[in-house]
Specification:
Shape: rod-shaped
Largest sheet: 2 strands, antiparallel
Order of helices and strands: EEHH
Distance between the termini: 96 Å
Structural class: mainly alpha
Strand order of the largest sheet: 1-2
Number of helices: 2
Strand content: 5-15%
Oligomer: single chain
Number of strands: 2
Helix content: over 70%
Length: 139
């Protein structure tokens, strides 16, 4: 894909924004030369009226197609925004998981240290109690 060209995947086809630009240019170039009102317009003439109706219908179709192309381009831009946001969220999720694992590991070690410290204090306290009791019993 070219740099700066956005793509939109439609059902069963791939539509790039570069193609839509060419498409828009084609219709603007072609239909502005075709859809220009006839200079010899006579309201009483039925063929001129039919031609004018045909020009009006063609202009309506061109306008509708241009609006559709603009909406497809807008959807493509919205899809690009969603892709960028999802990529950003994915990167943040990976970083969050990494930092959460680091914090979990640190907290586990901190918990082990406190458990060992309390256990050591209990052993020292028991030794002191046992020694003081044995000293009092031996005259």
């Amino acid at each position: 894909m070219l740099h700066g060209v956005h793509s939109v995947t439609l059902p069963h086809q791939r539509f790039s924004m570069l193609d839509s630009t060419r498409f828009t240019f084609f219709f603007e170039f072609f239909f502005t030369s075709v859809c220009v009102p006839s200079p010899a317009y006579d309201p009483s003439s039925s063929s001129s009226s039919k031609t004018e109706d045909l020009h009006r219908q063609i202009n309506d179709v061109v306008l509708l197609m241009q609006q559709n192309i603009d909406s497809v381009q807008g959807r493509g831009e919205q899809l690009d925004n969603v892709r960028q946001k999802s990529s950003y969220l994915e990167q943040n999720a990976i970083e969050f998981k990494r930092s959460a694992n680091n914090i979990r590991r640190k907290m586990w070690w901190k918990n082990i240290k406190w458990t060992l410290l309390i256990g050591l204090l209990l052993v020292i306290l028991l030794v002191i109690i046992i020694v003081s009791l044995t000293k009092n019993k031996s005259p």
